UniProtKB/TrEMBL annotation:
Belongs to the aldolase class II family. Pfam families: Aldolase_II (PF00596). Transmembrane segments: none annotated. Residues 27-212 form the Class II aldolase/adducin N-terminal domain. InterPro entries: Aldolase-II_Adducin_sf, Aldolase_II/adducin_N, Aldolase_II/adducin_N_sf. This is Class II aldolase/adducin family protein.
């Protein structure tokens, strides 16, 4: 069933006002929001996905706080800098002026500032992700999919992330990994591209769902030998195989186009 985006919050098409590279980033980011929603990983207007603006090292695109993921389009995204200044805000119908979620700004700016190799950051509050985030054991490497995250990072909960002082600790916790479980909070993935970050989040979400399902069966789980887990983990690392999302993304865009191509507006 088609979802008709932004019926009440229509915005002017920005494609003629930005570079071709920024426009493509906007289209892919809008697609990512739609896909996160389509695969059941959104949380009303909460959470956030960001992408670095090509050619602008201190600017990134993020959702306008007040839109559902299914409403987000390429033109509705906000451009902000690392200090939280809004560099570009679309004009919404009805004079609405959506801003940026404060926690989203803190989390995403922290990673974009510290890691120039990261283009995209995704943060979710799904029930499987939040459930595993409360488990002392963390994410178990007991399936081939979850072994991809055998060395996943963890960040201890110390309240809602509103203070800029939290940025240093977030980056330190993430380290060199591309995925992190925010304890008692949710999930976070990063990528050199939007497809890469989305692929990581989709697989991390699946890993959490599988763990909860297996643990719910009240039977002993099979432990995989550590050397096998490590070898499997290494098979998922960069340069071992093609970049994640490379083959998935065109197919996913075709899927969105069949449902509703409005994300491209």
């Amino acid at each position: 069933m088609a979802v008709h985006a932004l019926k009440t919050s229509k915005v002017a098409d920005l494609r003629s006002n930005v570079s071709p590279e920024e426009w493509q980033a906007r289209v892919d980011l809008a697609a990512c929001y739609r896909l996160i929603d389509l695969y059941g990983m959104s949380d009303l207007i909460a959470n956030h996905i960001s992408v670095r603006v090509p050619g602008e090292h201190d600017a990134f695109l993020i959702n306008a706080y007040g839109l559902l993921y299914e409403e987000i389009t390429a033109s509705s995204l906000l451009k902000i800098d690392h200090e939280g200044n809004i560099l570009s805000r679309p004009e919404f119908a009805g004079g609405l002026e959506y801003g940026v979620n404060r926690a989203g700004f803190v989390i995403h700016s922290a990673i974009h500032m510290a890691k120039p190799e990261v283009a995209c950051v995704i943060h979710t509050h799904t029930w499987p992700g939040m459930a595993v985030s409360t488990m002392e054991c963390g994410l178990l490497p007991n399936t081939q999919t979850s072994m991809r995250f055998a060395r996943i990072s963890y960040h201890d909960f110390d309240g809602v992330v509103l203070d800029l002082a939290a940025r240093e600790a977030l980056v330190k916790s993430l380290g060199d990994n591309n995925a992190m479980i925010l304890r008692n909070h949710g999930l976070l993935t990063t990528g050199a591209t939007i497809p890469e970050a989305f692929n990581a989040m989709h697989r991390l979400e699946l890993s959490c769902k599988t763990q909860i399902a297996a643990m719910s069966c009240n039977t002993k789980l099979i432990d995989v030998p550590a050397d096998v887990v490590d070898a499997t983990y290494m098979n998922y690392q960069p340069k071992t195989r093609r970049p994640f999302g490379l083959l998935d993304w065109p197919a996913l865009l075709r899927k969105l186009d069949r449902i509703d191509p409005g994300f491209r507006d």
